[in-house]
Amino acid sequence: MIFDIQEKERAKISRDIHDSVVQDIRVLRLETENLNVEKDSKQRQSKIADLATDCIIKLRNICYNLTPAELSSHNDGDSSKFELISIINSIVQQFTSRTHIPCIFKVEDDFKYPVLEKEKTQNLFRVIQEALTNIEKHSYATQVSIFLKEDTDAISIYITDDGIGCSQSELDKKIKSKEHLGLRSMKDRMELIGGSIEFFTSLNDGMELKIKLPLEKA
Fold this sequence. Notes:
Layout (H helix, E strand, L loop, with lengths): L1 H33 L7 H25 L2 H4 L8 H19 L3 E5 L10 H22 L4 E8 L2 E8 L6 H9 L4 H12 L3 E6 L5 E8 L4
Parallel strand pairs: 1-2
Antiparallel strand pairs: 2-3, 3-5, 4-5
Helix pairs in contact: 1-2, 4-5, 5-7
């Protein structure tokens, strides 16, 4: 229920930002571009317009992270196979663009795309999003990979980075600590949808996350 409330609040905040602030900055940019200025002020005018464009892009990214278009377009009850992959692709592209850390996303050959309920897709997205956020903030990684494969009656997602890592005992303490809500939230989300998440790491040897979601038998 808490996660569902969070999703609804994220969607509302995303709409509010897009429908108010983003639109206002668009008007500001247009008015700036249409100003009649002296020749020696043209460069400054262009710089202000470019700053407005940058703000729009950043706000759009914030809106997307709050509620991806692929999630908001879901029909209640299920989601298509395309949306799960497209969501991961979008996360990867934004992560690489924002951080300049290469992130490679691969899918196992002959992977059978499952049909997932909306709740499962939402929570998978949030777990992957949190994993990449942690890599960006803490790992000092130079490369990241995400690999999606099918296990027996389950799908597995592996997220690996080549960052500084930490000792496994230290990581276990962080997961249990109330101060590291992100890690706890990832575990809670996977348990909520009947899945699991495991963390494998060692000092100066990066980290790997294994996300596993059992699939309902047809």
